[in-house]
């Protein structure tokens, strides 16, 4: 499965920024060893249900340690028996764009 998620603390730093707290969540994801990528809006992670959800929970917990309230947006693509889809889905789109698909 692939999960795209975004975690945001309700309390920011002195300037209202949340990047330090979000960076700690991303660190949890990267240290998990699961395939992942982060963009401006979401972090994507791929793996089995239990392992992915455990990483999301740990990421929420690390943000919750710095904020009294945490927002979580999560979208999942659940497709048993398929691995490597984090890159493969994008590759299929690129193939259609360049006419080879």
Annotation keywords:
101 residues, alpha+beta, Alpha-Beta Plaits, four-stranded antiparallel beta sheet, 4 strands, 42% helix, elongated
Task: Write a brief structural summary.
This protein has a single domain (2-97), classed as Alpha-Beta Plaits. It contains three helices and four strands, in the order βαββαβα.
Blueprint (SSEs and pairs):
Blueprint: E1 2-9, H1 19-31, E2 36-38, E3 43-46, H2 49-64, E4 70-77, H3 85-97
Antiparallel strand pairs: 1-3, 1-4, 2-3
Descriptive notes:
The structure is a single chain. The chain has 101 residues and is of the alpha+beta class. It has a single domain, classed as Alpha-Beta Plaits, CATH 3.30.70. 42% of the residues lie in helices and 23% in strands. The protein is built from three helices and four strands. The chain has helices at 19-31, 49-64, 85-97, and strands at residues 2-9, 36-38, 43-46, 70-77. It has a four-stranded antiparallel β-sheet, with helices on one face. A hairpin with a 4-residue loop joins strand 2 (36-38) and strand 3 (43-46). Helix 1 (19-31) runs antiparallel to helix 2 (49-64).
- Quaternary state of this entry equals single chain
Percentage of β-strand residues? 15-25%
CATH architecture: 2-Layer Sandwich
Rg, rounded, reads 15 Å
**So what's the CATH class?**
Alpha Beta
> What are the low-pLDDT stretches, counting only 5+ consecutive residues below 50?
none
- Secondary-structure element pattern, one letter each: EHEEHEH
Structural domains: how many: 1
Give the CA-CA distance, first to last residue.
23 Å
Shape: elongated
For the secondary structure, the number of strands is 4
InterPro entries: MTH1187/YkoF-like, Thiamine_BP, UPF0045_domain
Domain Thiamine-binding protein: 3-94
Organism: Euzebya pacifica
Protein name: Thiamine-binding protein domain-containing protein
